[in-house]
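Appendix B, example 12.
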Amino acid sequence: MSLLARVVAVMNGKGGVGKTSLAGNVGALTADAGYRVLLVDLDPQGNLAEELGYVGSAVDDGGKALAAAMAFGGQLGPQPVRVNLDVLPGGEYLEDLENVLSTRSDRSSRRADAHTALARCLADVAGEYDLVLLDCPPGSPALQTAALGAARWLLIPTRTDDSSRKGLLKVARRYVEARARGAEVELLGVCLFGVTASAKKVRAEARADLERDLGEAAPVFATTIRYAEAAAVEARRRGIPVHDLEAAAMDGPRWFERLRDPNLTAPAVPGSAASLASDYADLAREILQTLQDRESVAIQDVADVEVGA
């Protein structure tokens, strides 16, 4: 198996569709299940630091190390943020990297450098992990191209609105371009994000639209991440995954206990935390199962070729 065989790019051409929340929560859940996980924050906004609570810490270098490694070579130094979970932080330094990679892409003699910049860096560390998730920016074409050059799989979160679907189609075009240049990336699937739990008709229509857009190119995951803004905002405010927020709710005093005793000052946890945590857990399981199934097919394809030879 290639060193980059478990690298998954989480990408959409539109912001606000759940890329960072999905990468952070699925990464943390998978790590808690005992897998070694690396999260790579390719976004100049560096929002993954808020998602996992390392803003302003020694870990948070604003993407300086990642940008330097991709621009000039050298080894990456993943930083631990939880048991089994390491990160390569993103941030403002990646804005300059976008310009560097764009310039290289315009020079035919150095075209390969731009498209393989991240792959070269990850090749040195990816073998230490069971799963690598790339949190990709929505509006940085060169960084998206670098991610597609490094990834084996592409995961696209999207909301049900038309602008999110347009963002998905932008990524699909960039994906086709990357494949034409020789990238080995394949579509893993699409995840509906931020869907109102009661909107069954909306979910069904959105799923049908996506399946028409994509044909048989990729599955639309059965799991959807429901709209639960209060829980999502509180988890990010605390810098913890949603399943940790759910655990805090179970350990803390219940609402009626706080009502009886005003001295119980533990902050309230939104009631939607348990449901949202369950969605992420289901999605993590579905992603891992899909990876296993797709890898088994790939291995069988290779075996068939060898037998045929």
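The CA atoms of residues 52 and 239 lie 5 Å apart. The longest strand covers residues 186-195.
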